[in-house]
Structures are given as structure tokens and as C-alpha cells.
Amino acid sequence: MAVHGDQDGSPNRRDVIAGVGGLFAAGIVLTPLAAEATPEAVADVVKKLTGGKEVKAGKVILSVPQIAENGNTVPLKVNVDSLMSGSDFVRAVHIYADGNPAPDVATFNFSPMSAKVEVQTRMRMAKTQNVIAIAQMSDGTFFSSQAEVKVTIGGCGG
Amino acid sequence: MTMEKPRVKLPNKAKKGEIIEIKTLISHPMETGQRRDAQGKVVPRNIINKLLVTYNGKELFSASLAPAISANPYISFFARADESGTIEFTWIEDGGEKMTHRETIEVS
What we know:
Chain A is α+β, with helices and mostly antiparallel strands. Chain A is 20% helix and 39% strand.
């Protein structure tokens, strides 16, 4: 895995002031580099998802390591307590992180054939941050769980 | 083609109603669009942004992925083995390119 060098690669003055056309182009290309997910950015994304509905604690079990030595690949597991039948099932699980260049990590969509909600993946973490898992239930309610991961060596531009 | 070698692990035989685990992995750099090359140029974003899984043609599971998912995306999930047939996996890259893999399952 190549080193994600963003420390010395933040939008450089010379890039930005390289003529009007350059300014425009560089603006488009470089803006995402400067953007950082923050707890507020995650809260905004969650609000958009839920339409302002309350997100309750419970039902969701988020398993992540307390300390990740390598931020390029941090294992993550989400379980949601649900019968996955009739009117009680989990439509989706959304994962966000508040210390990466962007809040989104992944969304998993389930069906009644899923039978059980337990999903695993591996994610990148630029630095020590919180991971948030939100379960979207079939009845329109939301449940969440959050955990902090201390990252020794960051991935994705950290 | 940056998508390579899709690998899927699931039991190819199951009892009706059994809950089975399905593990998927595909080789892909998941280029974030944040990284710079040796010349200092931003390497354009190129990720697998979706995995779609169908069971005998019906949608079983799907995942939307962001650049925060690690290279060579690994995703595992569960399903209930209801009937014999085919489970089909489709990975979709940013440019719209797709890779499909099929597994058969015999349910008794």
C-alpha cells in the first residue's frame, strides 16, 4: 500500500494562484483535499438521513479495535438485533467516520432474505476518530452506536 | 481494468432455512482521490462504489462504498438458504465498469 502523503500535499499556494483558469480548475480539484469530516459534518449527514428524527441508542453493536496500528485497514463489524422478518427488519446500516476527509464510509442494504444483520468490512482511518453505525429500521426508526478508534499510523491522506 | 480476482466464500450446500455467511473480496486499489503521485499530482479517484448481490434474481444485499473503504474491499454478510440456485455478485467501479461472479448453492 502506497503512503498516502497529504501532510506535505495540502493545497499549495502556487497551485491555487496559477492564473484564473488554473484557479478555477485547482479549486475544483483541490477543495476535497482540504475538506475534513468533523463531528458536526457527521451530524449534518445523519440529520439528512433521518430527516431530523431521533436516533436512539441500542440494538446496534459496533465492533472495532480500540487501537489500530495501521489506519489503512481497520476491521469493522456491525450487528443489529432484529428478527429480520415480517415488519421487523433492518433496511440499511450506514457507517460514518468523523476524522476522515469525508464522513461517508459505507451503506449496507438488507432484505428479508438476509435473515441476520451482521456485516464486516475493512476501512481507512486518517487519524484517531469516532466511527458511527446507524441502523435504519423498516418502521422508520433509527438506532446507533459509536466507538473511538485510536490510530497509530493513518491511512487515506493522514 | 483495475478490478481483479473476485473471490467469494459460501457453503455450496445448505439445509433449507439455514443461515449462511457469505464472504466477498475483490482486488482493487480503491484510489481515494486524496493521494498524490511522486510528481505531486492528485491521483484521480477510482473506487468500487457498489456491490450488488442477488439470490435467484432477487436482491439479497447491496453495499454502497465510499473512498474510506480499504483497498481490496472485503465485505461479509449473512443470508438464509431458502432454495437452490445462483447467487450473483456484481461489483461496480466509478466509471461504470462491472465485474460479475456467480456461485451456485444446493439447498436440501
